[in-house]
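During the first year of the project, the team set up a workflow for recording each protein of interest as an amino acid sequence followed immediately by a discrete structure-token representation. This format lets reviewers and collaborators read both layers of information side by side without switching files. As required by the reporting guidelines, we include two representative entries from the current panel. The first entry is reproduced here exactly as it appears in our internal archive.
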Amino acid sequence: MFRDAMLIAGKDLRIEARSRVGLSQIAPFALLMLILFAFALDPDTGVLDRATPGLYWVAVLFSALLAIQRAFAIEVSDGNRDALRLSGLDPAGIYLGKVLAVAVQLAVLEVLLGVGVVMLYGSHVGNALLLVATCLAATAGIAAAGTLYGVLAAGLRVRETLLPLLLLPVLAPVLIGSTRAFEAARTATSSDGWPWVGLLTVFALTYIIFGVFGFGPLLEES
């Protein structure tokens, strides 16, 4: 299973590295969202500073939708999805590989957005360890849930519009938990953020377990 996961993750990441869709389209889209937020709230810098955690994670979530759609769009063309079914690879390995590839792309995106937040909003972090733990747990949860719902919508002609409707309500706990943990990491009360990190970790593990056992049937149905 883990060998198959590394094969799938390597394939997806090589495709993204060669196409550069992430760097040329998804990353500029995410940074543009931060710029628009800054334009909208710039007259009141106090509001912008307080809203920084929420704006950051909203940008991450919307950018994640593009990355997840891209992860399954490359399987739709030329019958690649049928080839994936017939490849003999473990469905759980395919799922974990997709999750890993999406998570790596999101991690790079989060770093870029973090630089953007510092430059545009003048944000600072008091507890870097809490922030890193928040990003890791939230990224795992977004990638795990997104991959599961991505394969569910992949076989439909309206997948581009259906995936956000399915996924965004599910990711509401991730948005809430990551925002609260980010807020705690910026203040002296950073200990308040660790319970939210625990919630994010439980969310990620739950969807990873569901995905390991349920991805195969969903792939066949799609």
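The second entry, processed by the same pipeline in the following quarter, appears below.
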Amino acid sequence: MLVNASKRAAWLLLIPCLSWAGAPPAPAAPSVEVTGALPKTGKLALKDLQAMKPEKATWTDRGKQVEVEGVPLGKVLAASGFEPGPMDRSGPPADKRPGYKKVVLVTARDGFQSVFSCAELAEEMGPATRTLLVWKVDGKPLPPEQGPFRLVVLSDKEASRSTWAVEKIDVIDLRARGPAPARP
């Protein structure tokens, strides 16, 4: 009887300690990391992307039309401070529109990558490559294996640059590789 009473007392002392430890931490909010040659880098959470005025579009994925919701990749870059720069006709050619000499490397959780020039994503250049960083398909969040974010390239005829489970958007300044060789 004494043993049972001491065990019960030990449990009574332990229960407040267990409840004080609290619940496990909540999972982190979905985000995508924006890095590289931009004025502002860091993680963009879903709420940040939703504040960029999402768009809806119809996209054909493997022969099936779906409605996707997200923001153009160009808007994500603009929110990170991307600018094409001046078209200075009086300066050296290498200094014209320095932003358009950058590329965007989109990387998925599994290592898949797709590449875009910043110029092709800029609407002011003319008919741009239409990309959306989406979080909804047919009004529902993306399934775990495809999300939380997916890059959809609406203007490509095949989905080879569309990217599931986007984790990182990296902007690379190609001018850092050195000047282009002069032509004879």
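For the second entry, the following points were noted during internal review. The chain has one domain: 28-174. Residues 28-174 form a domain with the Sulfite Oxidase; Chain A, domain 2 fold (CATH 3.90.420.10). Both points are flagged for discussion at the upcoming steering committee meeting.
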